[in-house]
Amino acid sequence: MAMPSTFLLFAVTLILSVDLLTAVVYPDPEVAALSALKNSLSDPNKALQSWDTELVDPCTWFHITCNDQSYVTRVDLGSQNLSGKLVPELGNLAQLRYLVLFKNNIEGSIPAELGKLTNLDAMDLSDNNLSGTLPSSLENLKLLKILNLSNNKFLSGAVPPGLIHVPRLDISNTSLTIPPTGRPFV
Prior knowledge:
Blueprint: H1 2-25, H2 29-40, E1 41-42, E2 64-66, E3 72-76, E4 83-85, E5 98-100, E6 105-108, E7 122-124, E8 129-132, E9 146-148, E10 154-158, E11 168-170, E12 175-177
Parallel strand pairs: 3-5, 4-6, 5-7, 6-8, 7-9, 8-10, 9-11, 10-12
Antiparallel strand pairs: 1-4, 2-3
């Protein structure tokens, strides 16, 4: 009889060990998203130094603001001399209202997953080195009031029709165009 109980004890221990490993590998989606961003960026000024993934509350990190329920609502990393790329995981910041990354050296395309940020009020990606076209998924950002993409000379193509009516849309010094049926750019 000792054999079955030993096997049962082993099985339970193995299951609990797998659960603990899963918790480490798959942390809070907000911590995972912000960690992915940190890992994709070069940070010579150490703006992201407080972003310690072992502190599972990103609300304690510099350049992050949270709401009363401890959800990330603002990522504010303007003028931090960051370089690298935006990451699709940013789309997992479900309560994000402000994404501010102006005046850095961020390059590459804008991830389509940013279209999942349906609570976003403002996105400022101006004065970077972004390239490519705007993903049509950004049309899902119905609450967006400010979209500043200016001074990203490698952004090109037509602005998706659903973004044309963003009250403060700035695409100056890009190769983006407003479709003929859209509002004139001011």
